[in-house]
Amino acid sequence: MWEQLKEQLWDIIFPPRCGNCKAPGAWVCQECWQNLALVRTPLCYRCGRLSPGFKICPSCRQANGLSRLILCGYWQDPLRRLILNLKYRRLRVLADYLVELMVWSVRLIDHPIDLIVPVPLHRGRYWQRGFNQAELLARGVAKRLVVTMADPLIRTRSTRPQFGLVKPARRSNVQGVFRLKRGQSSLVEGKIVVVVDDVVATGSTVEECAKILRQEGAKQVWGIVIARA
Ligand SMILES: [Zn+2]
Ligand SMILES: [Zn+2]
What we know:
single chain, alpha/beta, Rossmann fold, 8 strands, PRTase_dom, Phosphoribosyltransferase domain-containing protein, ComF/GntX_DNA_util-trans
């Protein structure tokens, strides 16, 4: 009741405007929603070639712990702007829309999932931004798919944004930055875990999370992100 009232009040003070084109009426307008560049055929995230089930294609397969990475769309407007507005302009309402895209992509694969885990932010960055966008997305996806969400990973140091770095530097930038929180290994043992992030550059961050989760006994680790920047 109170939540509803708060939401209605909020809508009066800040009436919804499209997170891409600013048209009034909704947080993502019809036109922009229809113009999202979505990935409709499963691709290998490393080379972009067709690869059934969003798996890493045979020629790119490496021992990195990540079995597949699901990309929902391409890094193009309106999707690009929606992601940036969620992250940097703190338009959290946009997460609901992006969750829809993730749910749609996961359903394409039609495979059981046991646990959903967000890529953690470093504590300093969390206080700065006020929220972890990956966690918002993970929470939404878990709710929609009726799967448990947990936050068992810790980012032990703040890393530079991946986007400004060249490929080898991205890998070393995130190497060893994640670990499992104490007493959480029973949570991931034997599970099919899906790691959620908003965007990837090369996939190094998600791969690094996958490596830790596999070391801790996860049966399989996938990743899902909205787009690859
Ligand atoms: Zn729009
Ligand atoms: Zn490939």
